[in-house]
TrEMBL record:
GO MF, one example: proton-transporting ATP synthase activity, rotational mechanism
InterPro entries hit by this protein: ATP_synth_F0_fsu_mt_fun (IPR019727)
Highest taxon listed in the record's lineage: Eukaryota
Protein name as it appears in the record: Uncharacterized protein
Pfam families, per database record: F1F0-ATPsyn_F (PF10791)
């Protein structure tokens, strides 16, 4: 029983420390748009824009390769 008591005496007391602010780009993006009161649908708009830009770039590169061969 003394081992259990000594274990619990070593644990920190008081309130838990606060969370650190995220430092990675994904962590900052997640904190800005997904967590807490800031949660919104903007990531869906960002995803749509990314898909459109990726698709346009892919089509443009394919178009250039097509004209290179003919």
């Amino acid at each position: 029983m003394a081992d259990v008591v000594s274990f619990y005496k070593k644990l920190p007391t008081g309130p838990a420390p606060g969370f650190k602010k995220p430092t990675t780009p994904w962590g900052k993006y997640k904190a800005a748009y997904f967590e807490g009161d800031n949660a919104s649908g903007k990531p869906l708009i960002h995803l749509a824009i990314a898909v459109i830009l990726f698709g346009y770039t892919w089509e443009y590169q394919s178009h250039l390769k097509h004209h290179k061969d003919h």
